[in-house]
């Protein structure tokens, strides 16, 4: 149960940080030469690698160590060398907001389950 809460919390913090990066992109939409940024979810990338411990002498892959990595996007340049597509950024912001709210609801449900187990009802 704790692992699920940790995973939900990690995902929610990713979407919160991603929203901040997207808001920064939107705020700099008129800044000449600004390059839009995106946040990579390195934990998800590492899940795809499926690290396995095949020998008892191997170290355990630590899933909780991974974090977020901010990168510059290579979008099409605007008239002033600005690389922010405002429509795309607004769509990403809406998506991230919906995901953050959904994760918050899931966390609330997990804590309600935990409260039920602790109270013994």
Question: How would you explain this protein's 3D organization?
Answer:
The structure is a single chain. This protein has 121 residues and is mainly alpha-helical. It has one domain (2-50, 65-111). The protein contains three helices and two strands, in the order αβαβα. It has helices at 2-27, 42-49, 86-119, and strands at residues 37-41, 68-72. Strands 1-2 form a two-stranded antiparallel ribbon. α1 packs antiparallel against α3. The protein is elongated, with a radius of gyration of 19 Å. It starts with a helix and ends with a helix.
What topology emerges from the helices and strands here?
Layout: H1 2-27, E1 37-41, H2 42-49, E2 68-72, H3 86-119
Antiparallel strand pairs: 1-2
Helix pairs in contact: 1-3
β-strand percent reads 5-15%
Number of strands: 2
What number is the mean pLDDT? 80
Structural class: mainly alpha
Major sheet strand order: 1-2
Short description:
The chain is mostly helical and 121 residues long. 56% of the residues lie in helices and 8% in strands. Strands 1-2 form a two-stranded antiparallel sheet.
Features:
mainly alpha, two-stranded antiparallel ribbon, 2 strands
